[in-house]
Amino acid sequence: MNKNIKLNINTLLLLLVLTSIVNGFDFQELRVNSSVLTTNVVSAYTVTFNRGSTNLGGSTAFATSPLNTSSTLTLTFPTQFVITPGVLCSYQINSTGTFLSNNCTLNNNQIIFSNIFAASSIIRSVVVQISNVLNPYPAGRTSPFTGTIGIDVAVVNGPNGINSFVTIAPALCSSSFTYVDNLVSSN
Fold first, then answer.
1. 92 has which bridge partners?
2. 73-76 and 88-93: which strand pairing?
3. Model pTM greater than 0.90?
4. How far is the CA of 134 from the CAs of 35, 84, 99, 173, in angstroms?
């Protein structure tokens, strides 16, 4: 191969890598699970951020896009939720099996995890747990949960489009009647 062509290909590859670092990239849609999916019930949500893959199963530039200590992770709950102070936050990086508590910050429905990444961290995945969340009312399918890790963004409404939503079911109710006396109607 011609030396100039080889140099141009290497330069192009370097530019592509640098562009992904500066501009960020899209990664797989969030995977959301809840301990309870009933209206007006306090629940715990577990959300998986898979920064290593796309929705189509391809690889992302996560291995060449390290995060620095000022990078944050954000999780935005759908508009149907009203997130209030008192939520409890924990996280696990790269499937370590250990969840660490975090004093997350709340900004409307957005939960922000700060100071969780070490310098030049290579992050493939993060799992966050948010407890003490009141499920919305009325019942139905929510808007999507959205999230970022640093400048990288989880895809919303990707080809699968099912993992970043939850469907809240109505609470069961029961009623009963008792009669005080044997008369139902009298004239």
1. 127
2. unpaired
3. no
4. 11, 9, 22, 18
